[in-house]
C-alpha cells in the first residue's frame, strides 16, 4: 500500500533544535530523504536521538500480543488513516506500562527498527528534564515540529513519568518550562497528528497526572515473563556461551525463578560471565586441561589452559595474557551459578 504521508522532498529548510543556547543542525529535509540508512545526527548529546536503533522483533522473547498490537497500531496510523472517521480516535498515543526490565523500551526500539519507512525520534524524558536549556519551549516545539515534518514518524518518550515530576534542583526553572511545554504540546497533539505515533513508557504509571493517563488512547501492560518466556530467555541469553545446563535445568530455572524480569535474566548471565572473567584474569597459575573451547563447545581439545591454585599438580606460574585467547579455558556456566546470582 502506498504511503499517504510524503516527506517534503524539495524543501531544503534546515531543522535546528536550540539547546543550551546553541543551534544543533539536524539535516535538511533533502539530505534526510536521500539518506537511505536514515542515519541522522544524535542531537543534544544523547537526549534526543534520531538514529534508528538496531533491535529486531526476534530479539524480544515473548510479548507476542504487545508486538502485534504495536505493529497494527502503527500500520493504522501511517498507512490507513482514511478508514478512521472523525468519531474514531486513531490509536496514535500509546502508553507502555509495566515493571522494570520487562521490555518496554525494547518494544519501542524494535517497532522503530522494523518499520523502515518511518522516522524515529526518541527522547529521554529523564535527561530532557534534568538538563538546563536556555530556550526550553523552543526545544520542545522544534521536537514536535520535526516529528510532524518527517512523518510517518514515531515520537518515543521513554520514562514519560519524568515529565510529571518536580525537580528540586531546578533553580533556573528550565525543567519546569520543559515539562510545561511538553504537556502543552501533548495536549494539542491531536490537532495535527496524522501519520505520527506517539509512544511512551513508564514503570510508575500511578505518578502520572490523570489527564495525561487519559490522553493515551491505548495503554498496554507489559508484564514480567511467564514460565515459558523465562526458559526461552535463559536459552537466548546463554546462546553459544559454554554452559553445562541441560533442558531439565533450563525448565527448573524457568519454573523456580518467578518474578524475575527479562533484565534480571540477561544481567544474571552477564554477571556470571563477568565473575568467570575475573577468575581467569586474576589467576597467577594455569594448568593444561582437556576440554571444549568456548567458541567450539561441541569439540574437545587437549591444549586449553585453565586457572588453578599454585600447588595444583602441573600448575605453571603465568598470566592469562600469556596464552592465545582461543587457548584459555573458561569454566562453563552451571545451574548453580545462575541460581546463586538470581
Ligand atoms: N522480552 C524480552 N526479551 C529479551 N530480553 C529482554 C526482554 N525484556 C527485557 N529484556 C532484557 O532486559 C533489558 C531491559 O529491557 P528494557 O529496557 O526494554 O526494559 P524496560 O521495561 O524498558 O525497563 P524500565 O522500566 O526499567 O525502563 C533488555 O536490554 C534486555 O536485555
Ligand atoms: Mg525502559
What does this structure look like?
With 342 residues, the chain is an alpha/beta fold. The chain has helices spanning 29-34, 64-78, 104-114, 125-128, 136-149, 174-188, 210-215, 227-238, 247-256, 262-282, 335-341; strands at residues 14-19, 22-28, 42-43, 48-49, 93-97, 119-124, 153-158, 196-202, 218-221, 285-291, 301-307, 316-317. It folds into 2 domains: 14-221, Rossmann fold; 227-341, Helicase, Ruva Protein, domain 3, CATH 1.10.8. The chain has 11 helices and 12 strands. The chain has a 7-stranded mixed beta sheet with strand order 3-4-6-7-8-5-9, with helices on both faces. Strands 11-10-12 form a 3-stranded antiparallel beta sheet, with no helix packed on it. The chain is elongated. The two termini are 48 Å apart. The model is unreliable at 1-43 (pLDDT under 50). The protein binds adenosine-5'-triphosphate and magnesium ion (MG). This is AAA+ ATPase domain-containing protein. It comes from Timema poppense (Walking stick).
Would you kindly provide a brief summary of this structure?
One of its GO terms (biological process) is vacuole organization. 35% of the residues lie in helices and 18% in strands. It has 342 residues and is an alpha/beta fold.
Amino acid at each position: 500500500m502506498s504511503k499517504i504521508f510524503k516527506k517534503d522532498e524539495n524543501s531544503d529548510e534546515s531543522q535546528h533544535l536550540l539547546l543550551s543556547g546553541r543551534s544543533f543542525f539536524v539535516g535538511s529535509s533533502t539530505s534526510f530523504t536521500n539518506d537511505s540508512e536514515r542515519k541522522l545526527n544524535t542531537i543534544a548529546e544523547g537526549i534526543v536521538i534520531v538514529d534508528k536503533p538496531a533491535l529486531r522483533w526476534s530479539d524480544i522473547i515473548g510479548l507476542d500480543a504487545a508486538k502485534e498490537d504495536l505493529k497494527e497500531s502503527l500500520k493504522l496510523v501511517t498507512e490507513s488513516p482514511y478508514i478512521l472517521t472523525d468519531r474514531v480516535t486513531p490509536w496514535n498515543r500509546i502508553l507502555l506500562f509495566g515493571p522494570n526490565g520487562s521490555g518496554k523500551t525494547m518494544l519501542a526500539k524494535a517497532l522503530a527498527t522494523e518499520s523502515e519507512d518511518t522516522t524515529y525520534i526518541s527522547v529521554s524524558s529523564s535527561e530532557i528534564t534534568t538538563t538546563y536549556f536556555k530556550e526550553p519551549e523552543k526545544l520542545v516545539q522544534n521536537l514536535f515540529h520535526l516529528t510532524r515534518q518527517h512523518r510517518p514518524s514515531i515520537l518515543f518518550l521513554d520514562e514519560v513519568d519524568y515529565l510529571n515530576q518536580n525537580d528540586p534542583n531546578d533553580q533556573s526553572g528550565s525543567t519546569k518550562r520543559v515539562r510545561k511545554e511538553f504537556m502543552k504540546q501533548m495536549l494539542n497533539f491531536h490537532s495535527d497528528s496524522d501519520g505520527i505515533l506517539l509512544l511512551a513508557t513508564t514503570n510508575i504509571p500511578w505518578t502520572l497526572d490523570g489527564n495525561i493517563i487519559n490522553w493515551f488512547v491505548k495503554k498496554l501492560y507489559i508484564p514480567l515473563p511467564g514460565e515459558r518466556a523465562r526458559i526461552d530467555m535463559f536459552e537466548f541469553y546463554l546462546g553459544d556461551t559454554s554452559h553445562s545446563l541441560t533442558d531439565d535445568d533450563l525448565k527448573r530455572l524457568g519454573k523456580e525463578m518467578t518474578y524475575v524480569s527479562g533484565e534480571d535474566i540477561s544481567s544474571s548471565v552477564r554477571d556470571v560471565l563477568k565473575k568467570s572473567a575475573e577468575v581467569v584474569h586474576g589467576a597467577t597459575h594455569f594448568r593444561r586441561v582437556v576440554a571444549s573451547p568456548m567458541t567450539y563447545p561441541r569439540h574437545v581439545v587437549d591444549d586449553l589452559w585453565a586457572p588453578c591454585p599454585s600447588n595444583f599438580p602441573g600448575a605453571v606460574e603465568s598470566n592469562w595474557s600469556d596464552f592465545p585467547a582461543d587457548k584459555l579455558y573458561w569454566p562453563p556456566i552451571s545451574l548453580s551459578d545462575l541460581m546463586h546470582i538470581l
